């Protein structure tokens, strides 16, 4: 079996020749160790600053060349396209953010951005327009309040540089049929917030009529965007809006059912019925209360399974392993700060808990995040190869 056939067998509920392996994302510092040179791929702050300075072509060349070389050398079964791997923001005539100090910027709308040493990203720490904007729980921008009220949607994303499609097409065409391709889509509804977390949570109670209107609007908008965003040669799409903290859900399953269940289910149905793609759900936190909802919504795969948040892989396998492909198993915390022996032990434990009867893909419980111990990552791969065969 090649990688595409191997993962396709897992999604079909069949036993492949071995357990597939893949990651939701691999950050730039590990990529640079693998390919042996600097990269913009998953170099979030570095890419954003390059975009502010108008160096789109430079980033584009890196995204294409380095994405292909990474997966040729790493030889994982799955290729995914998360943030900072393919999408270029549309060039703007507006002035770039003004640098306030070595780690702080302010844009023309008064948004303030700060460099994070922990994630090596530039994050917005002050947004005067937040209350006029709809976000998912992981702060993915969904729409503006003005767009919802005016019913403005369009068939193409207005914030993407058209060269983004060249990146996506080139990488997918290179691997199509050999690797299992998990590509972008028109977006996920998730849990809709008006403004930031605090204001958005209040709006779920105090402004419910508007949230319901906005959610219906988003279903139509995202269904239309699927036509442009879903690549015909991808095998699946992935959504990554979080539903939970480490201790439990952001909202109750009952509130999710009342406000967002039908909308999310409609989005899954559109992807499957009109585009014939599997739906992978990346979700951190303790989502034990949501597992049955994941099945009802029609997700095909649950990626993450955060052990440090109380998600036991063996228990999840018993509950939903006959209907959901499970993708994860190795705590990312150990890749970051554990020992090679601990990483190897967790690979074996994951195989013991989830390998039987198939429907399992090995990976970390999130990503190979910035700051990962390269030797631990290599130990994970080496141990995987000792236990992966059926």
Describe, in plain words, how this protein is organized in 3D:
Helix 9 (253-275) links the parallel strand 10 and strand 11 (278-283). The two termini are 13 Å apart. The strands form 3 sheets. A 7-stranded parallel beta sheet has the order 1-8-10-11-12-13-14. The protein has a 4-stranded antiparallel beta sheet with strand order 2-3-4-5, with helices on one face. Strands 7-6-9 form a 3-stranded antiparallel beta sheet. The mean pLDDT is 95. The protein has 14 helices and 14 strands. The chain has 3 domains: 1-90 and 180-185 and 300-390, no CATH class; 91-128, no CATH class; 130-159 and 186-229 and 240-284, no CATH class. By secondary structure, it is of the alpha/beta class. The relative contact order is 0.13. Helix 13 runs parallel beside helix 14.
